[in-house]
Amino acid sequence: MRKEWGFCKKVSMVYAFFLVLGGCAVSKGTTGGTSPSPTPPTPFVWQECEIEGEASENSWVSIASSADGMKLVACIGEGSRGYLYTSSDGGVNWQERKQGGFKSWKRVASSADGMKVVALSYEEGDFGGYLYTSTDSGSTWTKQTGAGERWWEAVDISSDGTKIVACVGDAPMYTSLDGGESWYDGNVSASWDDVAMAGDGSVMVGVISGDYLYRSINAGTNWVPLTTLGKKDWTAIDISGDGNKIIASVYNGSVWISLDRGVSWTECTTAGTREWQDVCVSSDGSTFVAVDRSSVYVSTDNGATWATKTGTGSLTFPQVALSSDGIRIALSSMNRFLQTSSDQGNTWVERKTAGPRWWGDVALSSGGEYIVAVVDDGFVYTSPNRGTGWFEGGHRETWKAVVSSDDGTRMVAINSTGVLLSLDRGTNWTVINSGALGGFPLLSMSIDGKFLVAGFYGAPLYRSIDGGTNWTPLLDLGAEPWEALAISGNGTKIVAAVQNHYLRISSDGGITWKTNTSAGSRLWTSVASSDNGQKLLASVTNGYLYLSSDGGENWTALSSMGVKGWRSVSISGDGQVMVAAVSGGPLYVSFDGGNTWQEQTSTGNHEWKRVILSRDGKTVVALMANERNLFVGRR
């Protein structure tokens, strides 16, 4: 069964560029005259395709909620990079907030109305990251440089959004009373692990693993240790809106609760001894929540009893947020989708539409009608109408590469299990080889679908002459850091790029190979071939595009295009139409075999991963490395 999703958001019309060939000519007839102006090529019209369906899990490290639980903000981090995400309907739908930047984020916090939000970036510079604030529910963000570049750990914000407190490893606690415009530091410098403040900011509490709990009752100027409980391996802390109720957790220990602003404490033995990761108390103090690596625990009687709320699954470094009445719960985890509950944790909904798809590869039929794109740790998406509508097919897997036959009826893909075949345009897939090719990211196929070549960084190249069922290693080439592959229409001409080395070329289907030195030894990123294998295009990161018109014997650097972070290239079957992508930049198109190029400004600048052009040169698909959508160009 496959699910049909999606629509394409029209970005703008790319207007025609007139290629001026210049000059006049006299006809060979009896009457002289000027030759007619050449017909300008039809430009590409680009659409950004917003594909619904299941996005992959991401390294969700933090989530925050407004008082009513409807406005949520979440972030990706801890070794992963992504955007900030917001929801205004309790997590049903999510929006990428690209204005905040593509970063490794650490923590988020929200005011009561959800309008004022604060986020900590973690690995933005040499000395950590920065603190960002938003006053419009995350639509726009301001970098608060006054707080400095630091290794931020945690942050909290007052109900009205005017007061912010943030902690750093090996530094004082930092506090702002004007929404992040100005900052001052507290009197205790330590490796803080978590911090929280009462709704009005009158009481602030913090924890240091292996040390005491700390409290401030003068807006963060002075921090005093709460020595009653002694030093413990504290992991998290939270405080109610009025500042009276506090909850704190100990790793491989207990949950502790205070009902009198930290003067006295009760050990919640009924919650058990666990690897507690995060704790939260609702603003009204009615509900306490604690999370370990497998479950959510909820108490509505000040910690006397705890109910285990299962159904969340295995959790890696989870973070939890509550509505002011404790009814709505939002949960983030590095290894799962975002999850929400509207009944105090009794039932949970995975929010699978949040987050980017980590696109792996894309392929087109000859005329571009059929598109197939695979997701690294996700599903297969196909379009039968050049990107207008999309189907979700296959099953969740780590898909790496995909190719399509001329008519789109036969598709071959590589995922972590091996080589798979689809004869129904990507709906169902059958493993046809579960051998050594599992996870290979490089794959090229001849027009008839019989001849394939596959590659992986640090492994031999493999070829198949029976449509992918059987594979033979090309051992004469050795195990090289292969970066790109291209194959001619009939499968005889193969070009393989070795990272930071030379191109390798075969003219007999991979039986014999020649090292080409004409283009030099470079940081190749991509290579493409025309149907006859004569017109070749290759890209270099922080270098030039390189063009060959004689099957790779000689190469010319397209210096007029400049030195750029070229990421991916593709060529039409006749070698006349070409497309090239710049990492962090625009797309470029040539309609005259690489002589002149046009910047496709309507697509914007993105971290492009892959571009592919149909054989007829009329459809382009461009995948973004870290963003949810993809672009389709038609002409």
What report would you give on this structure?
- By secondary structure, the chain is mainly beta.
- It contains no helices and 59 strands.
- The strands form eleven sheets. Strands 2, 3, 49, 50, 51, 52, 53, 54, 55, 56, 57, 58 and 59 form a 13-stranded antiparallel β-sheet that branches.
- The radius of gyration is 29 Å and the shape is elongated.
- The relative contact order is 0.09.
List keywords for this structure.
mainly beta, 0% helix, 7-stranded antiparallel β-sheet, elongated
Summarize the structure.
0% of the residues lie in helices and 46% in strands.
Write the layout of secondary structure elements.
Elements: E1 3-5, E2 7-12, E3 45-50, E4 60-65, E5 72-76, E6 84-87, E7 95-97, E8 105-110, E9 117-121, E10 131-134, E11 142-144, E12 152-157, E13 164-168, E14 171-176, E15 184-190, E16 194-197, E17 204-207, E18 209-211, E19 213-216, E20 224-226, E21 232-239, E22 246-253, E23 255-258, E24 266-268, E25 274-275, E26 278-281, E27 288-291, E28 296-299, E29 307-309, E30 319-322, E31 329-332, E32 338-341, E33 349-351, E34 359-364, E35 371-383, E36 390-404, E37 411-415, E38 418-422, E39 430-433, E40 442-445, E41 452-455, E42 457-459, E43 462-464, E44 472-473, E45 480-487, E46 494-498, E47 503-506, E48 514-516, E49 524-529, E50 536-543, E51 545-548, E52 556-557, E53 564-571, E54 578-585, E55 587-590, E56 598-600, E57 606-613, E58 619-624, E59 630-634
Antiparallel strand pairs: 1-36, 2-3, 3-59, 4-5, 5-6, 6-7, 8-9, 9-10, 10-11, 12-13, 13-14, 14-15, 16-17, 17-19, 18-21, 19-20, 21-22, 22-23, 22-25, 23-24, 26-27, 27-28, 28-29, 30-31, 31-32, 32-33, 34-35, 35-36, 36-37, 37-38, 38-39, 40-41, 41-43, 42-45, 43-44, 45-46, 46-47, 47-48, 49-50, 50-51, ...
